[in-house]
From TrEMBL:
The chain crosses the membrane at residues 44-63, 70-89, 151-171, 183-216, 236-259, 271-289, 404-425, 437-456, 462-483, 495-514, 657-676. It comes from Liquorilactobacillus mali KCTC 3596 = DSM 20444. Keywords: Membrane, Transmembrane, Transmembrane helix. This is Glycosyltransferase RgtA/B/C/D-like domain-containing protein.
Length: 680
C-alpha cells in the first residue's frame, strides 16, 4: 500500500514537472538568458509543433506495414550515417574552455606525459573522461591516423549511437513496433542529441554509460536465470559508477536505482542482496578508479581544489540565476585552501537562503527551470568554437548565425517529447499500473530535474544526460495519444477537423508574417576563418629586441584580426601580420577591423622593441590538428589569435524561410487529407 502511494507520488510529481517544462518550452523558451531570439516566436512555434505532431500520426499509422517501416528505418539510419561522417571530419574544433583543457591533457597522456594541469584539481570529476579520451587518441596514433579530432568525433558519435540503441532495445522488450518506430523517428531527427559529439567533453560518455546501465537493469529484471541476473546487476552498477566518474550529476542514477529497487515488489531478502551488491560493486569500482588515477600520477593539488559546496553556492546565486559567473570563482579562489573555501561557500549559501526567503527561492528555481529545461537545443547554441583550424560550411547552420531552423525544429521535437511524457504520466496515474519499466527512467529524469533546480549549478547542457530516457518515455506517451485518437475517432466530426485545420493554417500564416524580421533585418555576424583562443595560458620570455613568429593558414578571406597576447610590458610589445614576406599591418591586442584580405599563408609576429626581456602569455600544447604550427622559436607554444570575416546577413535566407513555411503547409495538408479519409 505504501509502495503504491509512493509510486503514485513519483508519477504525480513527474506530471507536474512536465507541465512546468511544457509551459516554459512553449511560451517562454530561453527567456532568462535571451535564447528565444534563436528560434521562431511562440505564435509560429505552436502551430509548427501541432502540424509535425499530425505528421507523426500519419507515420504511426503507416508504419504498421512492414515494408514501409523498414524503408523508413533504412532512410533514417542512412541519414544519420552520412550526417555523422560529414560532421566528424568537417566540423572540428573546441570551445576553448573545459573541453580543450581535456583535449590538451588527453594528448599529453597519450604521448606518455603524466603531468596534470592545475585545471584538474579544480575539476577532478573530468579526470576519468580525460583518461578514456587519451586511450582513443592512442588508438588513433597506433593506426597512423593524424586526423585525431575526426577520429574522436566518430568515437563520440558511436557512443551516442550506442546509447540510442540501448533505448531502442529496452523499448523493443516492452512495447509494440509502432511505438518503437516513433522512438526511432524522433531519436534520429533530434539532432542536438548527436551534435554534442562535436565537443570532446563528458556528456556523451556519461549518457552512454547511463543507457548501458539502463539496459542491464532491464535485463536483470527480465531474466529468469540467476547467473544472468547477477551478472546483469553487477555490470549495470559498474556502468553507473563509470558514468559517475565521468560526470558528477550521474550519481543521481545510482540513487534512482536504489529507490527503484526499494519500490519494486521484491522480497526483503532480494532487496538486501541488491543493496549489498550495489555498495560492494561501487566500493570496488571506486578503489579501481583511484588506482587508475594513481597509475597516471594524478593527485589533487589543494591550492587549486574547490569544495563541492562551491557548485551549490553557484546554484543558489540569485544574481547569476544559479549559473556560473558573477565573480564567485575569483571570490572563492582568494582563500588559500579547500577548508577555508568550504567555510566561505557555506557562508554564501546561508546568506543566499536567508536573503531570498521562500518566495525568492521559488523565483530563482523558476528561472533555473527556464534556463535548463525550456530549450530543446540543450545549449548547443552556446557551444561555439574558439579553437578551430578548419572552417566549415555547416558551422554557420549549427553554431553560427543561421542555425534558426535547426534550433526551431529541435524545439518542436522537444515540445512533443515532453507532451508525450505528460500523457504517459497521466495514463499511468489513471491505470495505477506502476509495474512498468519506465519507473527507473522517471526517477532518473525528475532526480536530475530537482538536483539542478534545488541546489546545483544550472546550465542548458545539463539536461543532456536525460534525453534518451526522455525519448523512451515520451515516445510511449505519443503512442498512447495516437491510440486514443484512433480508438475514439477523435476527428470523425468533419466540422471539427476543418476548424482545427483552418486555425492551424491561420496561425501558420500569422507566425510566418510575425517572423519576417528574421529574413528582412541584417545582423552583424563574425564568421570564423581561423580560431586559436584559450583562456589558460603559460608564460614565454622574449629577449630584448627579439621577434617570435607563428605561421597561420587562412583558408578563406578575412577582414578582422583578434589577438589576445598579454605582455608584462605592453608598450614594448609590437604585434604585426605579414603576407608574402611583406608586413601588411600592425595590430594591437583586441579586435582590429581591416580591409578584406585573401586566403593564404600569413605570419603573425610579436617583437620586443625594448632593451629588457618581456614575458608574454601564450597557449601551450602538443601539436594537434586543431592548432596552427607552433611558434617557430618555441616548439610547444602558440599565439592567441583569431582571423574572421565580419559580415551582415539575415538569420535565415528568404528561400529557406519560404521553403520551411511551404513544407509545414504541405504537412498540414497531408494530415488533413489523411484524417479526412478516416471519416469517410
Amino acid at each position: 500500500m505504501i509502495r503504491s502511494k509512493m509510486l503514485w507520488l513519483v508519477w504525480g510529481i513527474s506530471a507536474l514537472v512536465s507541465i512546468f517544462v511544457l509551459a516554459n518550452a512553449i511560451f517562454i523558451p530561453g527567456m532568462v538568458r535571451g535564447a528565444q531570439a534563436n528560434i521562431f516566436n511562440q505564435v509560429y512555434l505552436l502551430p509548427l509543433s501541432c502540424i509535425f505532431f499530425g505528421f507523426l500520426y500519419i507515420l504511426y499509422n503507416t508504419l504498421k506495414m512492414k515494408k514501409y517501416r523498414y524503408g523508413i528505418y533504412v532512410l533514417l539510419i542512412m541519414f544519420q550515417i552520412i550526417l555523422q561522417f560529414y560532421l566528424a571530419f568537417h566540423v572540428k574544433g573546441a570551445q576553448g574552455l573545459d573541453d580543450f583543457d581535456m583535449r590538451v591533457q588527453a594528448t599529453y597522456l597519450a604521448h606518455g606525459s603524466h603531468s596534470w594541469a592545475s585545471y584538474f584539481s579544480f575539476a577532478p570529476n573530468n579526470v576519468g573522461a580525460t583518461i578514456i579520451f587519451s586511450w582513443i587518441i592512442k588508438v588513433a596514433m597506433l593506426l597512423g591516423i593524424n586526423n585525431t579530432t575526426g577520429f574522436l568525433n566518430l568515437f563520440l558519435f558511436f557512443c551516442i549511437d550506442l546509447a540510442s540503441l540501448c533505448g531502442w532495445l529496452i523499448l523493443k522488450r516492452h512495447t509494440n513496433k509502432k511505438a518503437l518506430s516513433i522512438y526511432v523517428i524522433l531519436c534520429t531527427l533530434f539532432l542536438p542529441l548527436f551534435i554534442t559529439a562535436l565537443f570532446m567533453y563528458t556528456d556523451p560518455l556519461a549518457l552512454t554509460f547511463i543507457m548501458i546501465s539502463f539496459y542491464y537493469v532491464d535485463t536483470f529484471e527480465a531474466s529468469k536465470k540467476k547467473t544472468v541476473k547477477i551478472l546483469s546487476l553487477t555490470f549495470s552498477i559498474v556502468m553507473m559508477c563509470l558514468a559517475t566518474f565521468c560526470k558528477t550529476n550521474a550519481i543521481i542514477m545510482l540513487i534512482a536505482f536504489l529507490i527503484y529497487s526499494l519500490l519494486k515488489k521484491h522480497s526483503l531478502k532480494k532487496i538486501v542482496a541488491i543493496m549489498l551488491i550495489t555498495f560492494c560493486v561501487y566500493g570496488i569500482c571506486n578503489y579501481s578508479y583511484k588506482q587508475v588515477q594513481n597509475s597516471y600520477n594524478f593527485s589533487i593539488k589543494k591550492a587549486d581544489n574547490f569544495p563541492y559546496n562551491f557548485w551549490i553556492a553557484l546554484g543558489l546565486n540569485n544574481k547569476t540565476d544559479g549559473t556560473s559567473g558573477g565573480g564567485l570563482w575569483a571570490d572563492t579562489a582568494r582563500y588559500p585552501d579547500p577548508q577555508t573555501r568550504e567555510k566561505h561557500n557555506n557562508f554564501l549559501i546561508k546568506k543566499e537562503l536567508k536573503s531570498q526567503g521562500l518566495l525568492g527561492l521559488l523565483n530563482l528555481w523558476s528561472r533555473k527551470i527556464n534556463i535548463q529545461w525550456s530549450i530543446g537545443s540543450i545549449g548547443i547554441e552556446r557551444r561555439v568554437y574558439n579553437i578551430s583550424s578548419q572552417p566549415s560550411f555547416a558551422y554557420n547552420y549549427i553554431f553560427g548565425n543561421r542555425n534558426i531552423i535547426l534550433l526551431t525544429f529541435s524545439q518542436i521535437i522537444y515540445i512533443i517529447l515532453w507532451f508525450g511524457f505528460f500523457v504517459r504520466c497521466l495514463k499511468t496515474l489513471k491505470t495505477t499500473n506502476f509495474e512498468n519499466f519506465e519507473n527507473l527512467s522517471i526517477l532518473f529524469i525528475i532526480g536530475i530535474f530537482f538536483f539542478h533546480m534545488l541546489m546545483w549549478e544550472t546550465m542548458e547542457r545539463y539536461a543532456y544526460i536525460v534525453i534518451v530516457p526522455l525519448l523512451m518515455v515520451g515516445s510511449m506517451g505519443i503512442a498512447d495519444t495516437f491510440e486514443f485518437i484512433r480508438d475514439n475517432n477523435t476527428f470523425k466530426n468533419r466540422f471539427f477537423l476543418n476548424s482545427i485545420t483552418a486555425i492551424l493554417a491561420g496561425c501558420l500564416f500569422l507566425g510566418f508574417s510575425l517572423n519576417l524580421d528574421k529574413v528582412l533585418i541584417n545582423t552583424t555576424y563574425v564568421k570564423p576563418v581561423l580560431k586559436q583562443s584559450f583562456v589558460r595560458k603559460t608564460p614565454l620570455t622574449i629577449k630584448a629586441h627579439q621577434t617570435i613568429s607563428e605561421s597561420l593558414n587562412a583558408k578563406y578571406n578575412f577582414n578582422q584580426v583578434v589577438t589576445n597576447i598579454p605582455s608584462s610590458n605592453s608598450s614594448a610589445t609590437k604585434i604585426s601580420l605579414k603576407h608574402n614576406n611583406k608586413k601588411i599591418l600592425t595590430v594591437k591586442n583586441g579586435i582590429v577591423n581591416i580591409t578584406n584580405r585573401p586566403s593564404g599563408k600569413y605570419i603573425l609576429q610579436v617583437s620586443n622593441i625594448s632593451n629588457k626581456p618581456i614575458v608574454l602569455q601564450v597557449i601551450k600544447s602538443l601539436p594537434m590538428d586543431l592548432l596552427q604550427s607552433p611558434i617557430q622559436q618555441s616548439r610547444l607554444k602558440y599565439l592567441d589569435v583569431q582571423l574572421a570575416e565580419s559580415q551582415n546577413e539575415t538569420k535565415i535566407s528568404k528561400i529557406q524561410y519560404i521553403m520551411f513555411f511551404i513544407l509545414f503547409l504541405i504537412l498540414l495538408g497531408l494530415a488533413h487529407i489523411f484524417l479526412f479519409k478516416k471519416t469517410l
